[in-house]
Design goal:
about 350 residues; Rossmann fold; Dihydrodipicolinate Reductase, domain 2; seven-stranded mixed sheet; 16 strands; Sacchrp_dh_NADP-bd
Length: about 350
């Protein structure tokens, strides 16, 4: 059978963007998901083949990956869906790419590195806005200041969120904040730190939140202490106090269910809104001698960047140029991968 690549979760918000961009670029991915009517409708509209299968059936997943070279896994929440797809990819020799931003999902995928090497498979979680721009910027900073011991990464993402992103954010906020200190992941209150980030559009006060780079930037750079930030409304201290009050409530099954019911009413940002919004990333590293390096970038809307990054990553994986194992975007493709993406402008590292 002709080797192809697959978009799983093609009927979701980001999966659909990936499929539509693929067709515009002359690609013909195999579309897949567990909802037969939705996947079939999209495949029919785009003139593509499709398969329907559920990740709870391991034998069915392995059979569905027959003839598939790369899976682009877009069906969250990845805390539930990643492991069964990774298992099937390792069993069938299929390269795995996903768009997760969840720290624990990254850690679990990275734990399969030896399995992936043995299977001749590339495992690449975080192939979208989570975490291509932040990971590549972190790798550039680490190269500019070898021996850096601390990394701060901050991002702005305008234009609104999809249902899947909101669902992940809701689950994550119930778990609290995370940082990496001296190589170890630690739980802290959300908003335990704030600082000013010098984004290309100007300085902004940002607040610490858990973000995938606590796993990926550590793997890419081995910088032992990492904090990730974004801009949130209101003073940082208020965020932490609200989170400490709300976390037990958010963890309750009833509130989680109400939230998921409400997510059914949410649609991701429309094309016009995406086109009118931008994303930005800023990072700073420090070493023991007091030297610092900073860098930044501007990029399109996070969802448009994700679709573009995924398609370019699939091309690299299909070319066979990435060594087997579990990777971050920068260990797979190099720190300059982000420079290849449409509409990305990088402000190179400055060492002080």
């Amino acid at each position: 059978m002709h080797m192809s690549w697959m978009v799983y979760g093609a009927n979701g918000y980001t999966g659909r963007l990936v499929a539509e961009l693929a067709v515009r670029r002359g690609e013909r991915p195999l579309l897949a998901g567990r909802s037969a009517p939705k996947v079939a409708e999209l495949a029919g509209r785009l003139g593509l083949e499709h398969r329907v299968f559920d990740l709870v059936d391991p034998a069915g997943v392995r059979a569905a990956l027959d003839g598939v070279e790369v899976v682009t896994h877009c069906a969250g929440p990845f805390s539930v869906t990643s492991a069964p797809m990774v298992d099937a990819c390792l069993a069938t020799g299929t390269h795995y790419l996903d768009i997760t931003g969840e720290v624990d999902v990254f850690e679990r995928v990275f734990a399969r590195h030896a399995d992936a090497e043995q299977a001749g498979v590339v495992l690449l979680p975080g192939g979208g806005f989570d975490v291509v721009p932040t990971d590549c910027l972190a790798a550039m900073l680490a190269a500019a200041l070898p021996g850096a011991t601390e990394l701060d990464l901050a991002f702005l993402a305008g234009g609104g969120m999809s249902p899947g992103t909101l669902r992940t954010a809701m689950e994550g906020s119930a778990a609290g904040g995370r940082v990496r200190v001296n190589g170890e992941l630690r739980t802290v209150p959300i908003g335990h730190r704030d600082r000013v980030a010098e984004f290309p559009s100007g300085p902004r006060r940002v607040t610490s939140i858990p973000w995938g780079d606590l796993a990926t930037a550590y793997r890419s750079t081995r910088i032992p202490t990492i904090t990730t930030f974004t801009s949130v409304p209101g003073p940082a201290g208020v965020v932490g106090k609200v989170q400490s009050f709300a976390a037990p409530l958010l963890r309750s099954s009833a509130v989680q269910q109400i939230g998921k019911d409400l997510l059914g009413l949410v649609r991701g940002p429309a094309e016009e809104r995406r086109a009118a919004s931008r994303s930005e990333v800023w990072g700073e590293v420090r070493d023991g001698a007091g030297r610092t390096a900073t860098a930044a970038l501007t990029a399109p809307n996070a969802y448009d960047l994700t679709a573009d990054a995924v398609l370019r990553a699939v091309g690299r994986l299909r070319s066979g140029s990435v060594r087997p194992g579990a990777h971050t975007p920068s260990t797979a493709f190099g720190a300059d991968f982000v420079r290849e993406l449409d509409g990305v402008q990088v402000r190179d590292p400055e060492v002080r």
